[in-house]
Amino acid sequence: MQRRLFLQTSLTAAAGLSQLTPVVTEADPLLLPDPKPGKLPRWRGFNLLEKFVAGTTGPTPAGPYQERDFEWIAKWGFNFVRLPMSYHCWSTPDPAHWTELNERVLKEVDQAVDFGKQHKIHVNLNLHRIPGYCVNPPAEPLNLWTDEQALEAAVFHWKHLAERYKGRPNREVSFDLINEPNTDEASYVRVITALVTGIRSVDPDRLIIADGLQYGNQPVPKLATLEVGQSTRGYLPMNVSHYKAEWVPMLNDSPPPTWPATWMNVAWNAETLQKITIDPWKKLQKQGVGVHVGEWGCYNKTPHDIALRYMEDHLKLWKNAGWGWSLWNFRGAFGILASDRADVTYKDYQGVPLDEKMLALLRKY
């Protein structure tokens, strides 16, 4: 699974689970919360990967989103999906044709937004690969941070999406502009400002979220004046969350993980997570910026009992902070379905292997 090159700079089962009854997390489960950029709801859910890469080379082949996913996510008491998407799914890597769009594929995104509305799930659209930048290989032909043609194309794609969803309430759909940026702050602020300006020229009230710097881990106070929310991550320390992950060479020789853990000569536990991954973002919140955890989880090579303890400490901290989260992924190596862990006895749930213990933990928080 080519998940991504990631972060080299930043420091049970519930009673009756077999019945899989819904957990009500909002005062009115029939109405999604109305989000504001300064106070994002405590959305809880999953990343869905149908448009994560173009073609059939990725962990999930590009194709229509599955309504069954939305049905199950809602049934289990969650209300959020993030759709990390590659623009290659509906356009081309060739800069000469970056503004040519495949309407058939974009209608599959429309359908996902409709599934969200039908099942009372907020849909967050993210450009995981945007013209000029992606945290995953291959590199883009032009550089979003330095090339005006790339920036113009990036603005074009977001303006097109803004036009498609103009009139949809923010409780149904929001935009997450660029996945896990890795650049200097000035360049990032310049690009985000251009994207926000483009979107608001079409849809002035659309809810917009920007990922933190350093692959989503560092808050960006200089974006506060744009009135956008910000998205953080939940992968630290990496030697626990990404143990034996093939796309992170720096962890190839890591010993089997523990939790609490030691990484980069730092002792990691819940208190460390509070200081490094929570407190800087709480400071950002005081500037009137809403916070949400766009991605997090543990790769399937991390022993299951370690993964669950690690995940629970994160979940407790986010609940205390009032933040929502979106697990990477729903189906796949970080998820609760078809995760292919060697040390889990799965439940067959309508033909799909279900990690009941992980689902129970997520529903608890």
What does this structure look like?
With 365 residues, this protein is α/β, with parallel strands linked by helices. The chain has a single domain (17-236, 276-364), classed as Glycosidases (TIM Barrel), CATH 3.20.20. 31% of the residues lie in helices and 16% in strands. Strands 1, 2, 3, 4, 5, 6, 7, 10 and 11 form a 9-stranded mixed sheet that branches. A two-stranded antiparallel sheet has the order 8-9. Helix 1 runs parallel beside helix 2 and helix 3 packs parallel to helix 4. The longest helix is centred in the middle third of the chain and has 18 residues, at 148-165. The protein is globular and about 50 Å long. GO terms for molecular function: beta-glucosidase activity. Residues 67-330 form the Glycoside hydrolase family domain. InterPro entries: GH, Glyco_hydro_5, Glycosyl_hydrolase_5. Belongs to the glycosyl hydrolase 5 (cellulase A) family.
CATH-derived topology: TIM Barrel
Radius of gyration: 19 Å
Can you tell me the overall shape? globular
Measured distance between first and last alpha carbons: 28 Å
**Helix share, percent:** 25-40%
Question: CATH homologous superfamily name?
Answer: Glycosidases
Q: Which class best fits the helix and strand makeup?
A: alpha/beta
| CATH C-level label | Alpha Beta
- Residue fraction in strands: 15-25%
CATH-derived architecture: Alpha-Beta Barrel
The DSSP helix count reads 9
What is the domain tally?
1
Query: Which regions contain 5 or more consecutive residues with pLDDT less than 50?
Result: 1-28
Pfam family, one: Cellulase
Organism: Spirosoma agri
Keywords: Carbohydrate metabolism, Cellulose degradation, Glycosidase, Hydrolase, Polysaccharide degradation
GO molecular function: beta-glucosidase activity
